[in-house]
Design goal:
Largest sheet: none
Distance between the termini: 38 Å
Order of helices and strands: HHHHHHHHH
CATH topology of the largest domain: 434 Repressor (Amino-terminal Domain)
Helix content: 55-70%
Radius of gyration: 17 Å
Structural class: mainly alpha
CATH architecture of the largest domain: Orthogonal Bundle
Shape: globular
Oligomer: single chain
Number of domains: 2
Number of strands: 0
Mean pLDDT: 90
């Protein structure tokens, strides 16, 4: 990948034909679905669905269904739970959230900044929920 995201955005803004943009920038564009991303993360981090589910305080069957492609479009909180389950740091979590297609975490939003802090410092999800509750923000686990 030779072009930065900003460069691609500038090219896209001035491109009248999306087909041409994609054709000219095929090697720059990432096409990954959530299922493939989960499978790759499980392999890369040498984790099991059960371990990720336990760390993320979520149902093993839910993650298994996502992993098998049976279930699609998890909520933002479920994606955040998976980030905790995979023990992703803030940057890895933003990438995962982007692939999942849910709103990224913004450090200017208090709730999001607490979650980012916890992810970056590998604080467990239950402790993160306690911190969110203490701050008066919506927790992750009580959807």
């Amino acid at each position: 990948m030779a072009k930065s995201t900003d460069e691609l955005m500038e090219i896209l803004k001035s491109e009248p034909d999306i087909g041409h943009f994609i054709e000219e920038n095929t090697e720059e564009i990432i096409c990954v679905d959530l299922r493939d991303y989960i499978v790759n993360l499980l392999q890369e981090k040498k984790l099991t669905v059960a371990k990720v589910s336990s760390r993320g305080q979520m149902s093993g069957s839910y993650l298994y269904k996502l992993n098998q492609g049976v279930k699609e479009n998890p909520s933002r909180n479920k994606v955040i739970q998976m980030c905790f389950g995979f023990e992703l740091d803030a940057e890895e979590s933003q990438k995962f959230i982007n692939v999942a297609g849910v709103g990224k975490l913004y450090p200017r939003v208090r709730r999001d900044s607490i979650i980012l802090f916890c992810l970056e410092n590998h604080i467990e999800i239950l402790e993160c929920d306690r911190m969110l509750e203490e701050a008066g923000d919506k927790t992750i686990l009580k959807e």
